[in-house]
Predict the 3D structure of the following.
Amino acid sequence: MLQPTFQSPPGRIQAVNLGGVRRLPVGDRTVMSAFGKRAVSGPVGVGPLGLVGDEQADLTVHGGLAKAVYAYPAEHYPFWEQARREAGVPAGADAGLLDAPLPSGALGENLTVEGLHESEVWVGDRLLLPDCELVVSEPRQPCYKFVAAMGFARAAKVMAESGFCGFYLRVARSGTLEAGQAFTLQPGPREVRIDQAFRRKMARRDL
């Protein structure tokens, strides 16, 4: 007999964040990056390659079908604000990127979400929104651009130790989404959680 499909209580999109490619200072040089995304209002189109109006600088590690959209839990923001204070990161630098409190999009995410943490979401789970459907694909990994944007040298290690990585999504059904919308999490195969996948990836890296 078929079992009823379980759907979790809804979470919420706190912010939808878009960014264009620009120069990001990294030590004594600059690199092209789309870090420093900013919240936008109103409906935003989403298709197989991500949100309309959003850009990625390095398509070898960001973007594409499997990494079309990046989501990050809003509940982790106080943690990063505290980590930056402890590291002595000055407020007010880089036109808001290093402000305290951090603005949504500061972790490089397209969707700042509430009610969905890495230990509660599995590869293959689906986020059901009113006008689109997204599928969890893999955890994000910290890179040198993330370190530069966060403003302190241990940022990648802090992400690895905390497990606060966020997760990528592929687009199963194109449409629109916007800040304030609720979503429901529909379980997929439930074989690997995002936090488990992240720990495995970090175990193979030398940060």
Observations:
- The first strand starts at residue 11 and ends at 18.
- The chain has four helices and 13 strands.
- Helices lie at 77-86, 144-150, 155-162, 194-203.
- Residues 35 and 119 are 25 Å apart (CA to CA).
